[in-house]
Amino acid sequence: MNKKKLKLGLPKGSLEEATCRLFAKAGFKITIRSRSYYPTIDDDDIDVILLRPQEMPRYVEDGIVDAALTGYDWIVENASDVTEILNLTYAKQSRKSVKWVLAVKNDSKFKRVKDLKGKKIATELVNVTKKYLQKNKVSADVEFSWGATEVKPPTLADAIVEVTETGSSLRANNLRVIDTVLESSTKFIANKKSLKNPWKKEKIDNIALLLKGAIQAEDKVGLKMNVQKKNLKSILKILPALNKPTVSQLSDRNWLDVDTIIDESLVRKIIPKLKKAGASGIVEYPLNKVIY
């Protein structure tokens, strides 16, 4: 009997480690063995393969994999006909989108994109760059770069279009940003035919729900405490919450349990205030998923 399987593509390379951490928070244990492109996952319904994000949208469109994580940049670059299931704002070093920027040497005479008319621009994002130049009515030579793009200006290229998350690599190579070409974030995408299969669609939707919950739990913590009834109003005024804190009666009729979710950055400011207002037994705990 043929067992139902969902073929899931995960990004090989810079996003690999961050993606595995995200799936772990979502409840999936992924194990990647050295030099293997076929990780194991603790879900018998899923087969995982590691692929380059640059190629992922094409493989999803062609049905080689049913669903995958890749960058919006590569969906646009490949003009892939896929369905976006979920936006996942995380990158290699942070939980925010990345930018493809047009950059030149710090001492370059080029100040704006129109100054690059007739010049050479090196990039891995060739199609997007050409469309960007067309939009700005600039005719320039766009050359594919196999890597180490930051070192090319000014000798090997007049300018580059390169992805940046923090800007540190650009600064380290004495590069100056002229303009942003494209903003990109990680997308959970699916093959359109696969979504017509009820079993696969439910599996994909369930994965998306758990991944979204893991993303929403980032930078948040749970906070619980014991509060005397007479102090409840004072405590509730201090606490921000997603909706309202959960308040439960304890065995002692004069005491209540208060449980809430807050931004982790607020905890160090709030706990002293809660203590001063009469809260006791204050416990802070981490969250893996928050599902609204």
Notes on the protein architecture:
There is one protein chain. The protein has 292 residues and is α/β, with parallel strands linked by helices. The chain has three domains: 6-92 and 186-217, Periplasmic binding protein-like II (D-Maltodextrin-Binding Protein, domain 2), CATH 3.40.190.10; 98-183, D-Maltodextrin-Binding Protein, domain 2 (3-Layer(aba) Sandwich); 220-286, Alpha-Beta Plaits, CATH 3.30.70.120. 26% of the residues lie in helices and 32% in strands. It contains eight helices and 16 strands. It has helices at residues 16-26, 56-61, 72-78, 126-135, 168-172, 198-217, 232-238, 267-276; strands at residues 6-11, 30-31, 40-41, 46-51, 67-71, 83-88, 98-105, 120-123, 141-144, 159-164, 175-184, 186-190, 220-228, 246-249, 255-263, 280-286. It has a five-stranded mixed beta sheet with strand order 4-1-5-12-6. Helix 1 packs across helix 6 (198-217).
